Structure formats: structure tokens, C-alpha cells
Amino acid sequence: MKRITKGISNFLNTRLGFVILAVFLYTLKTIYAYETKFNLGVKGSIQTFLMIINPIPVMLLLFGISLYMKGRKSYIFLLIVDFLDTVWLFSNILYYREFSDFLTMVLIKGSGSVSNNLGKSIMGILKPTDFLVFTDVIILILLLAFHVIKVDIRRLNWRIPVLVSSLAVLLFGANLTLAESDRSQLLTRTFDNNYIVKYLGLNVFNVYDMIKTTKTNAVKSQAKSSDIDSIEKYMKNNYAQPNVEYTGVAKGKNVFIIHL
């Protein structure tokens, strides 16, 4: 038993071991957030399995970048990435609680309206347990500060970071393949952001959203004023007369629209 404990301790005192520990703690934190802070609608063993593993590929790739660095820079970079990603997760927790959706590029660009909507009720929606998502960052800092885990300044074989990055890409490919097998056209037939998050993870959703926003902006930038002519022509040719039975029935009344 002592030999096993010593072996684990020796491994954690390497840069690779620290990366693996960081990925493990981040995964636990993400699972906690998925289960208690979001309503992803996870059903069945496959979706549960994917929800558990989907943080691993991206964080292994991001944290693995630190392995390309030397000495203390490696640890500092990892902690900064972990902290920033946790802040993003924390922000999504608050936004989701208020609006039942995740933060997107469109919302960030209109950050003024978002901050107004969220800022007015921030104290009302904030819960003490929300700060638990920072636990892994604190644990890693304390382990280093109290020298439970010592900074490894030894030169790392270049094959190790390359192998870690390759493994991360391979795991993501497996994750995506399994997700597509459970829900075909996952990335092309999206009407609910919860699907991408529960199948591929919050970080992948962020990348997906950025790509989608970029494509949309590219289409808008190429649009011409003459494009509206075909739309107006279609509307004119397919005009439907209003139903006289219902026209004006809500005039002067309050109307509640329920969107499912």
C-alpha cells in the first residue's frame, strides 16, 4: 500500500501528473455543475456517460499546453487557464439560472444589455454553493503553496506533450462519434443549446457558438440590398389572408405568449 501511495505521490510531483490531477478535479467540478446548476435533460446511460467524460478532451488539450512550457511557467499557465475557465463556468451558472440558456457571442457583444438584465438581480440569483466551482483551483494552489506537490523543473521529453495533445484530440473524436450515434446531426440540427452541452461539454459549445456566429456575420457582410427583392416577391406570391374569425380578438387585452 505504501508503495502505491508513494508511486502516486511521485507521479503527482511531475508536470504530467499535475495536469492529470487538474483534469480530474475539473471533471468532478463540471459534473457537479451539470447535475446541480443546469437542467440538461440527461436521459439514459449513454447520455450520462457522455456528460461525465465530455470535459476531459478539451481540458486535457488546454491544460496539456502547459507541458510545452518550462518549470514554473507550466504551473502558472495551467492555473490561469483553470481560473479563467472556471470564471466562465460560474458566469454561465448565473446566466442559466436567470434565463435557462448559456452565454453566447451575440450576448457578449451586447454585454451592456446582459449586464443590465443580470446585474439588477445578481444578488438575488447568487447562491453560496455557486462558489464551489472554484474549489479545484483553490486545492491546486494550496497543494503547490504548502509544497504537498513540488514544482517539477526537470526537462520534459517533447514526445509527452505531443502525446497528450494527440490523446485529447482522439478522445474528442470518440466523444463526438458516440454523441452523433445517440443523436444524429448534433451540430447541424440544433434548436436547444442544452443538447450540445450535455453531449460535448460547455467549452465545445463555446467554440461551436463562435464558429456559428462568425459564419452568420460573414453571410450578413456579403448581403446586398437587392437580396430583399426576392423575399418581398415570395411574400407577395404566398400572401395568406388573415383569418377574419380571429382578427382583432385580442385588441385592448393583455396577451401572454407561452414558448415551449
TrEMBL record:
The keyword Transmembrane helix is assigned to this record: yes
UniProt keyword Transmembrane helix present: yes
InterPro entries: OpgB/LTA_synthase_biosynth
Keywords carried by this UniProt record: Membrane, Transmembrane, Transmembrane helix
Chain ranges passing through the membrane: 12-34, 46-68, 75-96, 131-149, 161-179
Protein name: Glycerol phosphate lipoteichoic acid synthase
Organism in which the protein naturally occurs: Companilactobacillus farciminis
